[in-house]
Amino acid sequence: MTLAATGLTAWDQSSHTADGRTHPTWRRGAGPGVIVVHELPGLTPEVIAFGTEIVEAGFTVVMPSLFGTPGAPGTVGALLRVIPRVCISSEFTKLALGETAPVAGWLRSLARDLHQEAGGPGVGVVGMCFTGGFALAAMVDPSVVAPVVAQPSVPMPVGRRRRADLNLSPEDLATVKDRVAQGCPVLGVRYQKDRATGTRFETLAQELGDGFLRVELPSGRSSDHATLTAHRSQEAVDRVTSFLDERLHGA
User: Fold this and answer.
1) What is the distance between the alpha carbons of residues 8 and 72, in angstroms, rounded to a whole number?
2) What is the pTM of this model?
């Protein structure tokens, strides 16, 4: 697949290595840094389009490719090919209750490097669906000052405890709560009828109090899920952009 076909022609490709793991990255823009972490099945054209909007809002955007084919459409076939790989990967298999996915260390390292290069008060991290909780895990590092949790869906919401779980270890959750108490809010975005998010927004509100900025959008359909991409809501995109602007430019 050519760069022209993927929509990534305007982006600079590189890679980042940390904790013995290397993933390709795509970078574009100027200004404070924002990491856009794609959802399943990968770095789709819709994710790239969202990243482009953030670039145009005045940010340096880095989009890692953690799984899937960069730029490939988010088809059912692509999803079915990626899920088995994700399930057996050592980076994502720790999806049990009260555990942080190992890939969090890699994202924290990427955030530190981006902050050092782009400057500003820190960086933003936007996680979506499967990677929604990764934004919380990343903010354990002080370089992350604008975490965005979009429709967090891991672990799978089967059973009361799983529906409420934040995909964080108790130690990481304690650090997140401490950072929020010190003035680092968390923005959460979801559709009201999205069952994939379980009751995580209630958990976040309980754990973070007023530091959790909760945005719940009316659902046109019960299948609405991807607030920033496939089922894009302009309100959601605007709220995320405003949050990043306030935290990274306003500071």
Assistant:
1) 11
2) 0.95
